[in-house]
Amino acid sequence: MTSTLLGNRVSETEVCNVPDVPFTRSFHPVHHRDIIRLMKNGIQAVGLEICKAEYVLAQKGMQMFSVYDLSNSNSELCWSIGLRNSLNKSLSFSVTAGTRVFVCSNLCFSGDYLAVRKHTGGMDIDLLGALAYSTMQMMIPRLRAFQAWHLGLRNFPLPETDLKILLVEIMTNYVIPASKFHDFQGLYANVYDESLWGFHEAVTDILKGSNLLTLPRKNKILNHIIDNYISSLHSANDRLSLGDFYQHRSLLRL
After folding, report:
1. Beta strand 93-101 with 63-70: parallel, antiparallel or unpaired?
2. pTM for the complete prediction?
3. Handedness of CA 119, 124, 129, 131 (dihedral sign)
4. From CA 81, how far away is CA 118, in angstroms rounded?
5. What is the Cα gyration radius of the chain?
6. Where are the domains of the chain?
7. Which of 21, 175, 225, 236 is an S-S bond match for 87, by CB 3.0 to 4.6 Å?
């Protein structure tokens, strides 16, 4: 297996060629190749197809993260799911909802994982196959809801003062580093519209080169900041001042 950096994508063949880990009485690690096969079967069983697949390995192949872009009818974006698995007890087999925008290939996750199953002694392939199918059934409403949230950001124009507040939020919460400010500014001013959608897309555009293993966590923080901002708009009769915004943020306990 080729050694890779966390941010580098690897082929499905490299993932499948990770050496097997022996079972113990209490730990039955299900290999990444079996996760891939069973999830593909589960996706097909709910009537969807995989249009694109990406993989990342970490910890000498013991951790795997993959992204599957799925077929759906929306012309602006596609559904995506993120899968993670480990062979060393560090991660349970889990799935998260996501979307990818076609025009700019930006990828965004809800950030919340549906934890499917730890690799305990009772785990076997038949059980995991049933879990893969039921997981995809549960993921479809999550994907629909996340798509609606994502597209709904277009309904919120973003004044310049509020843009500056949100920029401080994402940088102090390490979604993007301060060194990327000018990159963000160029994208927001020249590529995307002046709305929460434009803000979100400019940030996720910068995150395109990020490590797939850390991307869901950064997306979760970004989405939470945006949700807090929307909540602040709904809870105030007048637009919040900078001080009011941070007071409201502290009450929400980000």
Report:
1. unpaired
2. 0.83
3. negative
4. 19
5. 20
6. 12-152, 156-252
7. 21
d(CA 223, CA 37): 31
Instruction: Using alpha carbons, list the distances in angstroms from residue 228 to 149, 163, 177.
Output: 14, 14, 21
The number of residues making up the chain comes to 254
| CA proximity to 198, closest of 73, 104, 72 | 104
Per-residue pLDDT band for 120 (boundaries 50, 70, 90) equals: low
What span, in angstroms and rounded, lies between the C-alpha atoms of 97 and 114?
9
HEC assignment per residue over the chain: CCCCCCCCCECHHHHHCCCCCCCCCCECCCCHHHHHHHHHHHHHHCCCCEEEEEEEEECCCCEEEEEEEECCCCCCEEEEEEEEEECCCCCCEEEEEEEEECCCCCEEEEEEEEEEECCECCCCHHHHHHHHHHHHHHHHHHHHHHHHHHHHHHHCECCHHHHHHHHHHHHHCCCCCHHHHHHHHHHHHHCCCCEHHHHHHHHHHHHHHCCCCCHHHHHHHHHHHHHHHHHHHHHCCCCCCHHHHHHHHHHHCC
Q: How confident is the model at residue 147 (pLDDT cuts 50, 70, 90)?
A: very high
Question: Sheet harboring 50-58: ordered strands across?
Answer: 50-58, 63-70, 77-86, 93-101, 107-117
pLDDT at residue 250 greater than cutoff 60 = no
Question: What residues contact 43, with CB distance under 8 A and at least 6 apart?
Answer: 49, 50, 68, 70, 136
